[in-house]
Amino acid sequence: MPPLNKDTILNVLKKIPYPGFSRDIVSFGLVKDISIGETTTTIQLELSTPDENVVNTLRQTVLTSLQGLAPDHEFELQIKRNTPITAPASTIIRGQQLPGVRHVIAVASGKGGVGKSTVAANLACALAATGAQVGLCDCDLYGPSLSLMFGTREYPRATEDNIILPVHQYGLRLLSLAFLTDPDQPAVLRGPMVTRYTQQFLLGADWSGCDYLVLDLPPGTGDIQLTIVQTVALAGAVIVTTPQEVALIDARKAIAMFGKVNVPILGLIENMSYFLCPDTGKQYYIFGRGGGASEARTLNVPLLAEIPLDIAAREAGDHGRPIVLSSPNNPVSQAFLRAAQKIRATLPVH
Ligand SMILES: Nc1ncnc2c1ncn2[C@@H]1O[C@H](COP(=O)(O)OP(=O)(O)O)[C@@H](O)[C@H]1O
Ligand SMILES: [Mg+2]
């Protein structure tokens, strides 16, 4: 039986994966304190998840594993709850630099349905229009939409040593889970699979030669986003919101999350800013006016674009050719092209 000290306890805890992840609770930075007493040892964990199942599973696994280390000793587990993210920046493991990729940009939103994939797709096309080599990776494994937006269902090939080769379309390199699944079936993924796919798409694919790799993140500020941040070194994040307060609140949370893990915010993109009536040219502020601009001022981040609601933009996405490519002179495309110029100025390629 090994002696009971901090190291032997940590070694046991290092073998306990966070439920749904391959990474263990120690390297996730969740173990905050170990105090060893004569008869009782207290372990303190700090968890961000609102999911009671995760907490209960961890409680049980940790106690059972430690009891195996010293059956006659008493172990007490204190679980501190903290939302939405626990690990302070110092304990976060930063992601790795992808070989041959200049800048990895995450397109994120606090809330779903705000047009994140539309923004990711058009921003990627707009960056390519500046003359850069661009890759686009759909990390929203529960709602992959890039195959629809880029009108391809080509199956990605792999090299002999199992490196995934992104699909080429419109001069961009793409990967999406949608290329691998039946479009009529929902992607039924469990936590560990999400992590594995995400890591494979990012680390196991050939993105080399990309000036920009744009990631379409799943909405929200949970464990998947944290995994991505920890898998690959991000040059910055673009946050998508609509002008509505409900979306802005969640955008704020997303900005705070990236701040905690030291990822710079490249800026805010306000989508669905107004409806430009094609008949009269009048602007209708359907979701309220100026929400994105005032939020950007408050949070001291750049406002990269205000994208109007536009029928042609929706149709272009649905028909498999993003509007930046199908009608570059459309006001929506122009807004994306200006945003791409700003990003290129912040993250130069030459
Ligand atoms: N500016 C816009 N004008 C018109 N339709 C839009 C605009 N932005 C997004 N949409 C449409 O709204 C829907 C949701 O957008 P999507 O990009 O899939 O959002 P998310 O990825 O945030 O869930 C899509 O059908 C898309 O075509
Ligand atoms: Mg999406």
Assign the structural class, choosing from mainly alpha, mainly beta, alpha/beta, alpha+beta, or little secondary structure: alpha/beta
Tertiary shape: elongated
- Straight-line distance between termini: 59 Å
Characterize the largest beta sheet: strand count, sense, and whether it forms a barrel. 9 strands, mixed
Relative strand content: 15-25%
Number of separate domains: 2
Got a strand count?
A: 14
Query: What is the helix tally?
Result: 11
For the CA atoms, what is the radius of gyration?
22 Å
Write the CATH architecture name of the largest domain.
Answer: 3-Layer(aba) Sandwich
SSE inventory with pairings:
Blueprint: H1 6-13, E1 31-36, E2 40-47, H2 52-69, E3 74-81, E4 103-108, H3 116-129, E5 134-138, H4 146-149, E6 157-158, E7 164-165, E8 167-169, E9 172-175, H5 191-203, E10 212-216, H6 223-231, E11 236-241, H7 245-260, E12 265-276, E13 283-284, H8 291-299, E14 303-309, H9 311-318, H10 323-326, H11 331-346
Parallel strand pairs: 2-3, 4-10, 4-11, 5-9, 5-10, 11-12, 12-14
Antiparallel strand pairs: 1-2, 6-7, 8-9, 12-13
Helix pairs in contact: 1-2, 3-11, 5-6
Bound molecules: adenosine-5'-diphosphate (ADP) and magnesium ion (MG).
Give the gist of this structure.
The chain is 34% helix and 22% strand. It has helices spanning 6-13, 52-69, 116-129, 146-149, 191-203, 223-231, 245-260, 291-299, 311-318, 323-326, 331-346, and strands spanning 31-36, 40-47, 74-81, 103-108, 134-138, 157-158, 164-165, 167-169, 172-175, 212-216, 236-241, 265-276, 283-284, 303-309.
